[in-house]
C-alpha cells in the first residue's frame, strides 16, 4: 500500500472539530454530553441505541462534531502529557446557580495551556437561582471575557435538563471551527489518538480512537504506544461495524495485542513486521527510561552503555 505524504497540501480537506467538555463536579458535564448525544447522534437510526465508547459524533446542519465523552480533567491531562493535542475546542461548563468553583479554574488553566479556543456553556438555566451575569463576571476575573463585554469568548446559556440552548451551543462550535479552518489529509497513513481503552470479552484489548489524520481501515497494521496489531474490526458509537474511519471520526479498534493507554498515538504502518519492530523499540525505550530514572543515569549514557554491551 502506498501512502501520500501526510502534510501534502493538495490533499487537505476540512475535518470536523473535536470537543472536550470540562468544568466543576456536578455542574453538568455528563448531563450535557448525554443531552447532546441523545438529541443528535450522527449516522444513527432514530431511537438507535448509542454505546458508551468514550467519544461520539453528532450532526448539526449537515456538519459533524465529535465529542470526547470521558468527563474529568484527568483524561485530558493524560493526553496532553503525551503530547496528543486531541481537542480543538474546549467547552467549560459552569452551573448558572453555582458560579465559578475550583475545578472551573482548573479547567480554564488546562484550556489556556492547550491553546484551544474556549466556549462557556452556562448550564442549569432552568433553575430558579440561575444568574448568568454572575458567571460572566467571575469568568472575566479569570481572563475568560464574554464577547458581549468586549472579550473574545462566547457564553451560551443552556439547560441539559430541558435541552434549551443545545442548538445554540452546537452552532457556536461550528462557527468557531470554521474560523479555525481545521483540515486533515484523508489519504495519508492513519494517525489516531486513544481516548479510552479496556479488555473486552471476546474482543481482547480494545481502544477507542479519534483519527487525527489519514484514514484508518480494517486490515491496517498499527502500532499504538507499546501495543501493536492488525485492525480486525472498527465499531462506531452506534455499535455498527464499519470499514473505514476518517479524520475526526471515532470508533473502537479491535485487534491489538495489549491494552493501549489514553493519550497513546496509533499509527498505521506499511507492514506487520514494521509495526511489531516499532512497538518493540517503543517498549525498549520505555524500559530504558524507567531504568534511567531508577539508576539516575541519563538516557544518553544508558544508550551508550547498551551500545557498548555493558548493560
Ligand atoms: P458532572 O459532575 O459535571 O458530570 O454533573 P452531572 O451531569 O452529573 O450533573 C450533576 C447534577 O446536576 C445531576 O443531578 C443532574 O441531574 C443535574 N443537572 C445537570 N444539568 C442540569 C440542568 O441543566 N438543570 C438542572 N435543573 N439540573 C441539572
TrEMBL record:
Annotated localization:
Cytoplasm
Using the record's annotation, list all stretches that form the Tr-type G domain: 14-183
The residues the record assigns to binding GTP are 23-30, 69-73, 123-126
Q: Annotated region G-domain: where?
A: 17-165
Q: Which family does it belong to?
A: Belongs to the TRAFAC class translation factor GTPase superfamily. Classic translation factor GTPase family. IF-2 subfamily.
Q: So what does this one do?
A: One of the essential components for the initiation of protein synthesis. Protects formylmethionyl-tRNA from spontaneous hydrolysis and promotes its binding to the 30S ribosomal subunits. Also involved in the hydrolysis of GTP during the formation of the 70S ribosomal complex.
- This one is known as Translation initiation factor IF-2
Species annotation: Sulfurimonas diazotrophicus
In terms of the parent sequence, the fragment covers: 360 to 670 of 873
